[in-house]
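User: Continuing from earlier, I have the next pair ready.

Assistant: Great, send them over.

User: Here they are, in order.

Assistant: Folding the first of the pair now:
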Amino acid sequence: MDSIPSPFLEPGDRTKVGSLAIVSLARDDFDAIRLEKSSGAVDGYAEGAVLNTRFGSFPHSTLLDIPWGSQVRASAVDTGSRGRKRRLETTDDDTPAVSQDESRKTPAKKATVASSGFIYILRPSPELWTSSLPHRTQVVYTPDYSYILQRIRARPGTRIIEAGAGSGSFSHASARAVYNGYPKSETDIKGKVFSFEFNEDRFHKMTEEIESHSLTGIVQIQHRDVYRDGFMVDGKSPNATAVFLDLPAPWKALQHLSRRGSSSPLDPKQSVHICTFSPCIEQVSRTVTELRTLGWTDVDMVEISQKRLNVTRERVGVNLPNERGNSQTPADVLEAITKLRKVNQQNKQFQKAQLAQNNGATADAMDVDSSAAASAPARASDGKEKTTPDEDHDKPWMQGRLIHRSEGDLKTHTSYLVFAVLPPEWTEEDEERALAKWPCGRESKIIGNVDKQARKKEKREQLESRSKKRKAKSELVDSQTKKAKSNDTQAETESAPATE
């Protein structure tokens, strides 16, 4: 059994040799690499294996044994012989293969920090893997598979059937959802994902990724046409309680997901939840019809529409600097009029200065006073000097009104999700246990099971019991009252003076 923990399930606290890592280059720009340790030059790089990005070069030696989420500065890398083409033996363009330079046993050169450029090294997760995986088919993105896993009741220990593995986005997400430990033997029942893929090339690529990510004990992938051959695994039932079908014609596979016959892949003792993923409403219509024909209940359809909102503060004003986030438009009519008056006054001053220069005369005292008044700072009614938005340096990020705008470009696509529930199989033994626990038809004290005379007799007994209780209570109150009165009379007699 698989004993190596998967980086998606148990990544550890720090990066290590051979582990999968997600490199964050920019917002929504991620790249998956496998970290390698080089003892010498690799592909012309004296520092060993190197990751090249638009933000600089990053030797793998700078990415090893650091906490997840660390920021890594770029290194000044000497590529050596640039004329030699890079010889790559893998499909990963970001992880260079070891060249013949490795055989020289030349110690790898220590990396030198560059003046600029950095990346973030992140631990693998289904969300990051979905954003960085190589697309072989249409991908089920996070907004869709998170809702799907919730609706099909995926939790630790659940056994899921997935048809149409594709690029493996849902496979990684469902593996994390059902993970409750690796199976220690063949009889050890743990949460598991049974994935089926019809395309042979995608099947082989998906198999390599599952083995590379150490998910073999959690995800079992099969190359099969489920329309014809169904969902049995090695002739045995996977006893699944959740099903996800990402197929062009899911209604053709539903015939293998019924409880009829002895070769059902579903758990007979629990309810089974199913979800089909279809981009066309005609596919949905045929799927719903087939589900109802086969006895599935609670059939409904959902469409996921995701929106991402950017919340910012909008600063509006004609005197604001020309910076990002500032709108140099008047905030109101008063600000617009003040700006126009200031511009007109500056134009008059410029025209007078030009006229005085042409005539060889100096400006009169009124002009000097008016220009000085124009250049003097504005004051409020209380005599205090007014401040412009440029002079107000108190928390500029708190200035302006709070606004939000939705982003238009999102990594998702429109598809229809059809959900349904198949109740558990009900046998004669289950019926007998239910009757023993809830004896339907043999209840006592039920109007339908007791005749009229017996009900009248029972009612009279209840009324007599109540009257006896009331009578006993009233007698007790009367006795307490008489006792209190006798005590008061005796006390008055003792306190009266004796007569001769």
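And the other member of the pair:
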Amino acid sequence: MARPPFFHGGSPPPPPPQPSSNPGQYIQQFLSNLLSQRGPSSVPYSEDSKWLIRQHLVTLTESYPSLAPKTALYTHADGRSSTLLQADGTVPILFHSATYNIPVVIWLLEPYPRRAPLVYVNPTRDMVIKRPHSFVDPSGIVSVPYLSNWVYPSSNLVDLARDLARHFARDPPLYSRRPPAPNPNPSFASLNDSVSGRPNQNPNPSFASSNSSVPGRPNPNPNPNPSFSALNNSPSGWPDPNPNPSFASLGNSVSVRPAIPPRSYPQSPYGSGGRQVGTEDLAEVFKRNAVNKLVESLSSDIGVLRKTREGEMEGVVSVQAALREREERIGRGMREMQGEKEALEHQLQMVSMNTDVLEGWLRENGGKVKNVDVDDAFECCDVLSKQMIECTAADLAIEDVVYALDKAVQEGSIAFGPYLRNVRLLSREQFFHRATNSKVRAAQMGAQISSMAARASQLAV
């Protein structure tokens, strides 16, 4: 059996017939099949809320059989369109001891049940929305306090329908706009166009024509059958308090209020072409669910495979980044080694040149230095240098003598008393030599600085 089509606007098709034996069973089957679907064709509700949505709709249809669940295409304010659930039908109200049916549409938007549904008054072609109304704006949107005070999870559709019936009974939002008929029998503009196909409990009440009867004038039609001459254009905007709510047209009636075209909403039944609710072929349902399950499983596998490949790609990218960093390090090391190699080659050239110079000097002076004293091998260039050499030599000689005395004391070759006296004398002499050496070094440093300053002044000139 083919799936029922979705209607995207225009007049709604006739309501599907329901079996008189147990219509609630078919509604439950329809909701179970719809909310159990997966994949792109599923309704856009969260998985943890679908069971609660089903319970709300089932309880609503049990309490109000005139409201039946459907699916329809809803267009949001931003232009998005999505297939959503709605409860379409009528809400019975008790007005002047007569029962009337107010056609409404309750849309369950995507955040439902965490957010309140969207309720519209859905007038037929011969009905007009009352202006002004406390809870219904001219576009048909209903804003009763129960919607503004919606609290999840305590709020539900049954209490919402009861609240709508209570407020609409105080101030009906619709009235008929059909012109008065000369027929003495009142016209019955029955509003019992419930999608469930069930007749109203009171088959006679209807929204009769608004005839703007003159106050205080008796009703020329004594028909006891009540009809709703709602909002008869009286100055107060309320129905006439006559206990017989059926008023035929009066000869001196004023013209009716201008007709307002009824608001049309996209509606979609859950069955069409004479098919009963939820009577699809089990094989088709099983096939559709199996396909959806396979699509879901394939999507899950593709997601896992994609995550795995993304992880592998991230690993390869990280390895590539590490290799690039190592390449940069190796390049820097190669450049540093190349610089060191060039510096070493330069130093090698300098050493080779110095070696050649020394070897040449040795070849020239090798025979001259055989009988030369070591002390006479070096000659000082000035008096300060000669004095520094003498002080340094005396200092090192005293250091050697003190070391020899230490060894002699340890071996017992000299007594401890003479050792201390000799060490004291040698230490005093060594101190004087070191002080002289420091003064000579300071004098040499000063002379060198003066020489450098003199050269700098000559270069400046």
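Worth noting for the second one:
The domain at 23-176 is CATH 3.10.110.10 (Ubiquitin Conjugating Enzyme). Helices lie at 23-35, 50-63, 145-148, 157-170, 282-365, 383-411, 416-460.
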